[in-house]
Hints:
Layout: H1 5-15, H2 29-40, H3 51-68, H4 74-80, E1 82-86, E2 101-105
Antiparallel strand pairs: 1-2
Amino acid sequence: MQISNEMGRAFNKAITNPENFNKDGSVNWNFIDADCYMDVKPDDSPLFNTREEGQAYVDQFDYLANVWEGKYTVHQVRQNRIQIMPVTNPDLILDPSKPAYIVKTL
């Protein structure tokens, strides 16, 4: 999962705002979502011009919320921060009997 810097900052700001918690201490996710949306939304224009942009926001928000709630282990979060892409250039493959990968860190 790739989280944009802008989204990461917006989520951190929203989740540390005491106003975004209910009286019982639980998180008011609607407030968190609203704060994130307002922080990443450019000016007065809509944030999402396409369905894909909207889905990307939802995916990032859900992932950050799940991480905050502890639904992922630290190991899973670390694995999600690494993208493994197969190498398609045969000149880069040292042993043709084994696949080669480039690891792209975020």
